[in-house]
Write a structure and sequence with these properties.
The chain has about 140 residues and is mostly helical. It is built from 5 helices and no strands.
Length: about 140
């Protein structure tokens, strides 16, 4: 059986990241009421990213000797790679993949959930060894 301890760093990252992904997902639904899906996915990602930064800094990674602004800059760089993945997967599935297979059960929501799930492992290692690493 899989034995994951909640007190492990990766487990805390997944839990806090899951919460931030929820913020991302729910805010995208709200933003979609006022803007296009494509723009809403991006703006919601930014909201989720700020949430994830705060939670990761407080609950996940050991205190580094970097300034918060430097950590946030590094966090942003790691997330630039992730947002590209999320956007292409979310938009690609919702606008091209799902219509091609005639998938109509909440296509934008399912596409977005898949999109925000993809960069979990790459983001963890990016933040562990780059964002919150001690100098």
């Amino acid at each position: 059986m899989l034995n994951i301890k909640i007190n492990s760093e990766f487990s805390r990252f997944v839990i806090t990241g899951g919460f931030a992904a929820g913020v991302n997902f729910l805010s995208r639904i709200g933003f979609s009421e006022f803007m296009s899906y494509r723009v809403a996915v991006f703006i919601a990602y930014l909201v989720g990213m700020v949430t994830a930064f705060i939670l990761a800094k407080v609950f996940v990674f050991a205190k580094s000797n970097q300034s918060t602004s430097n950590e946030f800059s590094r966090f942003t760089l790691v997330n630039i790679v992730a947002v590209i993945q999320v956007w292409f997967i979310s938009v690609g599935l919702a606008e091209y993949g799902f219509p091609a297979i005639e998938f109509v059960f909440y296509p934008e929501e399912i596409a977005h959930l898949i999109g925000i799930s993809v960069p979990v492992v790459t983001s963890y290692y990016g933040h562990k060894y780059f964002t919150f690493a001690s100098k």
